[in-house]
Automatic annotation (TrEMBL):
Highest taxon listed in the record's lineage: Eukaryota
InterPro entries to which the protein is assigned, alphabetical: DUF389
Organism whose genome encodes this protein: Norrisiella sphaerica
One Pfam short name: DUF389
Transmembrane regions listed in the UniProt entry: 49-66, 72-94, 106-131, 151-169, 176-202, 254-277
Keywords, comma-separated and alphabetical: Membrane, Transmembrane, Transmembrane helix
PANTHER family the record matches: AT15442P-RELATED
The name this protein goes by in its record: DUF389 domain-containing protein
């Protein structure tokens, strides 16, 4: 019986003495043929009716979750989001030097980003007059994606997501996108960008404008001022007759950091996943060879099956 490539890799791994070489060979075990990965990636990279329905549906769910401070709804939108498909197409296209796939994934991702921000903007126009004052916008879910601290924390999530994406896509029994969609957090920052831009655009016609800790209207009482600043951000503490005020610059700052969070995720996931694919020895040279061998094996199986059926027909 002919030894398969997987058996050869395992035998090399067992006979290897150098720990570095052994670790390198270990990365190539349980590896899918490139043509299989390519087929899956090409199915996910295209923008069609189903893609747009999932995208806008996820944007609506994310917007409601952000606006109502519901982590459960935000997480649900990540699971529906199709944004990872075009990203994966551009990464794998770059890895195997399939430039048309890389360009298609890059362009489709740009369009998907535009549509996602637009969806968040529309939801911001709808929710701002209905929920901003009562739910004390920006909520924790909104402002949490608009700070430098969370941007730095997101870097580690993006590093882990790149590893998970590369391993799961290339593994024979991997689950490609579900877990990555949660950790990458690609959709909510874009929706948050659109919502904050919409809120900043129309808030002056809905609510008074001022700093979130503006105490100019409070009597000069240190106790009251401390209570306002310490316990109240952008909303009146119960029992205190302080107006709800909107800080437009704060909304624009959150929008900017949210978009930067998405861009950081994109760049880091691209680089880390590409490194994982290279460790798995995906590239233009073995892509064509393994595809040819797989097609050859499939043709032989089909011929053997057809011959067997013909023989059964003759005997019958």
């Amino acid at each position: 019986m002919e030894e398969t490539k997987e058996d050869k890799r395992l035998s090399q791994l067992k006979s290897s003495r150098g720990i570095v070489h052994k670790m390198y060979l270990y990365t190539q075990t349980n590896r899918r043929p490139p043509f299989e990965v390519l087929q899956d990636v090409e199915n996910q990279v295209e923008i069609d009716f189903n893609f747009m329905c999932n995208l806008y549906g996820a944007a609506v769910i994310a917007a409601v979750g952000l606006g109502t401070n519901s982590p459960v709804m935000v997480t649900a939108s990540m699971l529906i989001s199709p944004l990872m498909g075009p990203i994966l197409g551009s990464i794998f296209g770059f890895t195997v030097r399939k430039w048309d796939l890389m360009l298609r994934g890059f362009i489709n991702e740009i369009w998907a980003v535009i549509h996602t921000i637009f969806g968040g903007f529309l939801m911001g126009l709808i929710l701002s007059p209905l929920a901003a004052k009562g739910l004390n916008w920006p909520t924790d879910e909104m402002s949490g994606r608009g700070t430098l601290r969370n941007f730095v924390a997101g870097l580690f999530f993006a590093l882990a997501s790149g590893v998970i994406l590369g391993v799961d896509v290339s593994a024979a029994n991997g689950n490609a996108l579900v877990g990555v969609a949660i950790s990458a957090s690609l959709l909510p920052p874009l929706v948050n960008t659109g919502m904050c831009l919409a809120f900043a655009a129309i808030s002056s016609g809905l609510y008074p404008i001022g700093d979130k800790t503006d105490v100019s209207g409070v009597e000069n009482d240190p106790t009251r001022i401390f209570h306002l600043v310490a316990d109240n951000e952008n909303h009146a503490v119960e029992g205190w007759p302080i107006e709800y005020q909107v800080d437009i610059m704060l909304q624009l700052e959150i929008a900017g950091w949210s978009f930067a969070l998405y861009m950081m995720n994109y760049v880091v996931i691209f680089l880390v996943t590409w490194i994982v694919f290279k460790l798995k020895r995906y590239g233009p040279e073995n892509n064509l060879a393994e595809r040819h061998n797989s097609w050859k094996s499939a043709s032989l199986i089909n011929l053997y099956t057809a011959g067997s059926l013909a023989n059964l027909g003759v005997k019958a």
